[in-house]
Design a protein that fits this description.
Number of helices: 13
CATH class of the largest domain: Alpha Beta
Structural class: alpha/beta
CATH topology of the largest domain: Rossmann fold
Radius of gyration: 18 Å
Distance between the termini: 32 Å
Pfam families: CCG
Number of strands: 8
Shape: globular
Low-confidence stretches: none
GO molecular function: oxidoreductase activity
Organism: Pedobacter insulae
InterPro entries: Cys_rich_dom
CATH architecture of the largest domain: 3-Layer(aba) Sandwich
Mean pLDDT: 94
Protein name: L-lactate dehydrogenase complex protein LldE
Amino acid sequence: MKVALFIPCYIDQFYPQVAIACLELLERLGIDVSYPLGQTCCGQPMANSGFEHLADGCNTLFVKNFIGFDYIVAPSGSCVLHIKEHLKNDSQLDLVKHIKATTYELTSFLVDILKVEHLTSSFPYRVGMHQSCHGQRGLKLSQMSELNAPEFSKPGKLLSLVKDIELVELDRKDECCGFGGTFCVAEEAVSVKMGKDRINDHTKQDVEYITGVDMSCLMHLEGILNRQNSSISVKHIAEILNGVKA
């Protein structure tokens, strides 16, 4: 199995430890991982802003970088959803179709493809799980609370395999944090209020860490936590599954 690691640009620039944790975790699970050095932004910011037609260069570069792999794995639900829904290249339709079908968010890859049932990591802290909107509603990583349907959570299943972790139950477990990509720029006040509401829910449960599958959401929450001088920290789920030392 040849797997390419797709690292979003904001993780590359601000949270490289998340990329390293993702690589180490996959290698620990016996995967042959490659990191295409020419990769840059996937084009999601342009698409989110209504300028998808300006992302042709990103599309072409993405296809060029990720040719020839069995799977493409990324520690970001929103970037994966963008590739699955918006990647296009009219001259390479079959190749684009293959890339879309084989691009996975990390936890989905671990649960659906590798079918991970055991982990050796330990994280002895109270942890709140933030369900990001793109991952939950776009990639179906977990069940939506408004549906009368059996509950499931791929990130939650993996976290339950971590030794000594104490996962808390939130009052509103799948509420949006307010980040929303360019939404947090265009509607700053609304975005911050939504973020504060999410943090209040975690604070009420006396968590020590907030985790999730999207570092973009966690970055938004981290900024608010820092301004509140909160003792709560954020950790991407890849770091916890990889056995990061707090």
